[in-house]
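Much of our argument rests on the idea that a fold can be written as discrete symbols. Part of our work consisted of pairing the sequence of a single chain with a tokenised description of its backbone. We regard such an encoding as a compact summary of how the chain folds. The amino acid sequence and the backbone structure tokens for this protein are reproduced below.
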Amino acid sequence: MKNVSATERIKKALKKRKYICDDELAFSLYLAQHLEKPLLLEGEPGVGKTEVAKVISEVLDRKLIRLQCYEGLDATSTIYEWNYAKQLLKIKAIDASHNPQFHLEDIFTEEFLIARPLLMALQGHEKVVLLIDEIDRADEEFEAFLLEILSDFQVSIPELGTIHAEHRPIVIVTSNRVRELHDALKRRCLYHFIEYPSPEREMEIILSKVPQVKKGLARKIADIMATLRGYDFYKRPGVAETLDWSESISLLSKEDIDEQTMDMTAGCLFKFREDVNRYKEVKGEVLSPPEDDSAGTD
């Protein structure tokens, strides 16, 4: 019962910050905090994975350190690098003073170290939330750099030794499943897949994020979104697109949705020409779903 009440507290805390989540995600966050293990969140783009880390940092009043992943990412840009300019000036100054006590190791100290996001998350004197966003966009080799951090919350720097975390950060790793992640990384994380929300929960999200939209319209938007996701699009619209669409409809001062409104706001939901064309083909079906064949029969 203690875990259930903790889950409810997390859901309420997130809801106050306009993030609506289900029991499973709330419990995963509870485990990540109390077991001090990274949480890997997978799901389609736009379902709210990145937002989880942002809201958790607000709830816990912790600094958010974000590492946005991309192809070609390496240890130098994510863990640390040496301040070569400062090291060079130090060497020149010592050469000018002819100091016989100088050793090359003297320029490989923390004074000359530039901490990047991963090291910053470990070195801080206060607890932080570390977001490693879209890890699937980085090269597979980059995952190897993360293993030591995700398992032991430490980094090894050849010139300095091993730096351990003073306070273990809450680590949120997100993936859009552009590629499969290595088992070694997954083993070091708790796991949760964020599904598209049900129409009921998506309506609640709309009312929370776009309060100017009336409940009836929010329900219709949520129903349309659920129907659209059943069609074969190159990129199905996520919750982020739902909110953009809801705000656009609100700006049009619409109390209902017709085909003209859908045409005008198509760019809020789809970002590929083929998807926009497909959307316009099915908009009539979406607005007027087929009636139940059993209705009206004897």
